[in-house]
Amino acid sequence: MDTMVGGTIGIDPTALGVLMPMHIVISAEGEIASVGTTIARLRLGRPLLHSQFRERFELRKPHTSISLGDLRRLTGQRLHLRLRESPFTAFRGTCVELATGQGLLFNLSFGIGLAEAVRSHGLTAADFAPTDLAIEFLYLKEAKAAVMSEIVALNGRLRVARQRAEAQALTDPLTGLHNRRALDMELQRSVAGVLRGGPGFALMQIDLDFFKVVNDTKGHAAGDHVLTVAAERLRKVFRSQDFIARVGGDEFVILLPGLTEPADLRRVARRLIRNIEQPIEWQGEACRISGSIGITMSSLYASPDPDRMLSDADAALYEAKRSGRGCYRVHSEKTAASART
């Protein structure tokens, strides 16, 4: 630091650096004659010392030229300055005139750009005066950022936990299929869509034939294995958009959006029965089951009703069982009457 500065204002240059590490002194010729230790640490392309103040800084507020005469008239006022070159750091500050003919003394701060300036120039607590609240501000900012980060992370964990809990509440734990509650919600949405003029859908109700025999003769573990394999076979037969639910011990309901042609549904039902009837191995033995299927379609109703459709699919399923099992029946008034007898 230029010792002339300390002598001019009656303060030792080192002491001035401690009190005002962000000061700048410009000579009567407008040259930067001295800078504080923090200003000297700024990561600039070339040092500030001995360069012309007006070439290195622009005065952004108040709007006036940056000649020495104009700056003298601004002594004591709040000034907004900015470097003319990268990284274009902004400053807040004020200036006072030194002894006649000795120039001006500026005391600067980073203002609201403090955090960015600290990052840009690699500054630390040692670069600020002990009485400067800048470090306290940074600590508060960092603490707030840490708290906000933890809140965001916590909210994320809570959201994931809620989604997982909601999924578990709508999932059959054994097979991983949807459960009855999920089916009721999806059926309500599908019916509401049809009533608004949306696409129709079909319902298939499936009951595993001879499952009770497997469960009674080979045990519940074998029964659970058969149910798990049957669920996988359902997934392979149906489309990704089809809604598959396990609604009872060996009962399943499938909602098939957009599929209302009886011929298509019969083809799917036949394929499903063939897949279900494939032997399932359990501890070296073959478990043999089949499937009875009842089918109904939203297009059969002037105003589809979820309970009515489930009841009619069940009636068609009952008719399939009465017909010898391992087959399917499509709902009609005839199957409904037969189920009631």
TrEMBL record:
Gene3D superfamilies: 3.30.70.270, Haem NO binding associated domain. Signal peptide: none annotated. Residues 199-333 form the GGDEF domain. GO terms for molecular function: catalytic activity. This is Diguanylate cyclase (GGDEF)-like protein. It comes from Albidovulum inexpectatum.
